[in-house]
Design a protein that fits this description.
The chain is mainly alpha-helical. The chain is 71% helix and 2% strand. It is built from 39 helices and two strands. Helix 17 packs antiparallel against helix 18. It is elongated and about 120 Å long. It starts with a helix and ends in a 14-residue tail after the last helix. The C terminus is likely disordered.
Length: 703
């Protein structure tokens, strides 16, 4: 009788999670059974009590002291570990192996716990082993086991394996259907998720809120908005709009599909808005480019006294990033600190990205250094931030540190580092990064392939850029533009024009950047008539309206060919607002062809328009100097001084023996400046001895 009494009381303590009373009861059981073995039902109940109350250490001690364990003993501990999350789930596979070694036959409850644990720690190998045992013992056909197995395969991303399991399940419940839909949704396989929902309705299975929210989460692009509307109608028809999770999923779906009006209607109709509802609408605005509306809605949320979640903050910070609102970003940062979210990795990643995009690299680095163990996403954000702000040396340095700390990069990391090498024209470093790309097994898909092509093109290595371009599995318009630009800028204009023809044969539609590169090639080759053909082709064939860059290329084509009056007429007849850009190009061409009359006309136009670029004043001054008009030279000097225009010092650099040597006009800081100046004096004397006469312009630098 005492055992039955103990069992009933243990069951009550477990249900109430009354650990204190349970421990007292445990002591009584030990005292009452000191002279005889404890009943297996009582020991199993004790394991279950400690497990359900969260004391897994005590549960394990009681379990280990059971002499003759049955399947319930094992199940109690296996399920306790699996339900506790990834921290203890890795112990489940060890227990399962021990259980089999001790010849205890697993049942459906065992496999449900094992598959849950495998999904928690993404243990594909262990999960597949348990799958084989489940089939062998016929436990696989239990609906709960099948659903757990489905969940495991979906969690690790093996949706094809999950679908095979789903198709042969003799019985499915609402969890099975929802899990399969969710698996497809996690992989953004919207068509397959919709197919499962349709099959679910065909088999007259009752739709539930989990199935609908799962399929809605798969609809993330505009082409699926009509499917989303049909599911919205279905939710109305079967009365599932009363669930706030369904309302939230609809707001999110409309936002991600770009239908903000529908998202806003759903948001306003929602009667029980929680932080997820607000976050969904704020994120929808931010992702659609309506960042100001996102910030305004966040302010409304704050005054409505709705506590924001970390996801809300991420959406708002991204909105600040897109419009460069650093002051608002700092306020949101302070608010997030107050709410205790500063240690969240995705929060810090968003903050680093925001500060970097707003130009505050120092603050971005502080956020990066705050986390002791940042993940690869945060490293990528910081490296990308350096590149965006022209801190290319810092980007390469941080990438080297990332390698030394053993953190594996992703495609975006490599693309950012390659962009840094491009900006520095650092060919050797770029080749080393190329080697890392091969080492890490990245393919030449568009993000990396395009960045690698750009790097080789900027460094003038045409053989390498052609090799990368030809090996890319898919090429978009950006890839073609990089190749055409590289050929055009490195003296292979005819090859650039041939590649443009090949681009059209492969049915890749050119964009405005393509035509800038093509017109630039025509300019370098002196192909005036061909340039006009391409300029007119833009709108007539492809519907691309010429922009300032295209007009500038046409003026350059005419200017390089010496057709200066034609260039002047083209500028004056252009309908685009070109400011001073076109006159500046014409002025440079006039200087080259010594057409001083037209040059002074273009130069005076620039003075009249209030140019702030020193080159315009320098060119005009040199023309007046050549004409001997010293009063005009002095006038140009005074205007330049009055407007506060100064000539920026020239800067160049060269890589020698793994060192970058930077030279700036007037800088005396180089350690070998004495030897360099001596060589320059020797070269200058040699030039003068051979009759070279230097041209002195408005500003000069003495050696």
């Amino acid at each position: 009788m005492y055992r039955a009494s103990f069992f009933t009381e243990l069951l009550h303590c477990t249900q109430q999670k009354d650990l204190r009373t349970g421990k007292a009861l445990h002591a009584q059981i030990l005292k009452a059974t000191s002279s005889s073995p404890t009943c297996i039902y009582l020991t199993n109940s004790l394991v279950n009590l400690y497990a359900k109350c969260g004391n897994l250490v005590k549960a394990r001690i009681v379990f280990d002291n059971i002499t003759h364990k049955d399947v319930v003993s094992w199940n109690c501990l296996i399920n306790a570990y699996s339900q506790n999350g990834p921290t203890t789930s890795f112990l489940v596979m060890e227990l399962f192996q021990r259980m089999r070694a001790e010849n205890t036959f697993p049942n459906a409850h065992t496999f449900a716990g094992v598959f849950t644990a495998a999904s928690n720690v993404l243990d594909v190998f262990g999960g597949r082993q348990a799958h084989a045992v489940a089939v062998k013992t016929a436990s696989f056909y239990d609906v709960f086991v099948g659903s757990s197995l489905l969940n495991m395969y979906c969690k690790v991303g093996l949706v094809l394996e999950a679908r095979k399991v789903f198709d042969i399940m003799p019985e499915r419940n609402s969890v099975s259907w929802s899990t399969m839909i969710s698996g497809y949704a996690m992989q953004r396989m919207a068509v397959d998720a919709l197919e499962i929902l349709e099959l679910m309705r065909y088999e007259e299975e009752d739709e539930n809120e989990f199935a609908l929210t799962s399929v809605l989460s798969a609809l993330v692009s505009p082409e699926f908005v009509n499917h989303g509307k049909l599911i919205h109608c279905l939710a109305c028809k079967i009365g599932l709009l009363s669930f706030v999770s369904v309302e939230n999923a609809l707001v999110t779906m409309y936002g991600k599909c770009g239908s903000l009006d529908d998202a806003l209607k759903m948001f306003e109709q929602s009667g029980d808005k929680d932080s997820i509802t607000w976050s969904a609408m704020i994120t929808g605005y931010a992702q659609s480019g309506d960042s100001n509306k996102a910030l305004k809605l966040f302010s409304h949320m704050h005054f409505s006294r709705i506590k924001p979640s970390e996801f809300t903050f991420v959406g708002v910070i991204n909105a600040c990033s897109d419009i460069g609102a650093i002051m608002e970003g700092k306020q949101v940062h302070g608010y997030s600190l107050k709410m205790g979210y500063e240690s969240q990795i995705y929060m810090m990643t968003a903050l680093v990205d925001m500060y970097a995009k707003c130009g505050s690299v120092v603050d971005a680095r502080k956020g990066f250094d705050y986390l002791r163990e940042p993940d690869f996403v945060l490293w990528t954000s910081m490296i990308g931030g350096y590149v965006q702000n022209g801190k290319n040396e810092s980007a390469l340095s941080l990438y080297c540190r990332m390698q030394m700390e053993g953190i594996l990069p992703n495609e975006l990391t490599m693309a950012s580092v390659l962009k840094a090498c491009s900006s520095l024209a650092a060919l050797e470093q770029g080749r080393q990064i190329h080697a890392h790309i091969v080492k890490h097994g990245f393919s030449l898909e568009i993000p990396i392939g395009s960045a690698l092509s750009t790097m080789y093109a900027k460094c003038g290595s045409l053989e390498d850029v052609d090799l990368v371009f030809r090996r890319m599995p898919t090429r978009d318009v950006v890839s073609w533009n990089v190749m055409i630009s590289g050929l055009s800028q490195n003296g292979s204009g005819h090859d650039a024009l041939k590649l443009f023809e090949e681009m059209q044969l492969e049915n890749t539609k050119p964009d405005d950047v393509t035509f800038v590169n093509i017109l630039s090639a025509c300019s370098h080759l002196g192909l005036v008539e061909q340039g006009w053909v391409y300029f007119k082709m833009m709108f007539d064939k492809f519907g691309i309206v010429p922009r300032l860059e295209h007009y500038a290329c046409m003026v350059d084509i005419l200017g390089r060919a010496g057709k200066l009056n034609e260039a002047k007429a083209f500028i004056e007849s252009s309908t685009i607002d070109h400011g001073m850009c076109l006159w500046r190009i014409l002025l440079s061409a006039c200087r080259n062809y010594r057409n001083f009359k037209l040059g002074t006309y273009a130069g005076e136009k620039l003075m009249e328009l209030g140019s702030q670029e020193s080159s315009a004043y320098v060119l005009l001054s040199s023309i007046y100097t050549a004409l001997g008009k010293w009063e005009d030279v002095e006038r140009v000097r005074k205007i330049m001084k009055l407007r506060g225009v100064s000539k920026e010092p020239g800067c160049s650099w060269i890589d020698l023996k793994n060192m970058t040597h930077v030279f700036v006009v007037g800088d005396q800081m180089h350690p070998q400046i004495g030897e360099i100046r001596g060589e320059l004096r020797m070269l200058t004397k040699q030039m003068e001895d051979e009759g070279y006469q230097p041209t002195f312009e408005l500003t000069s630098v003495s050696l």
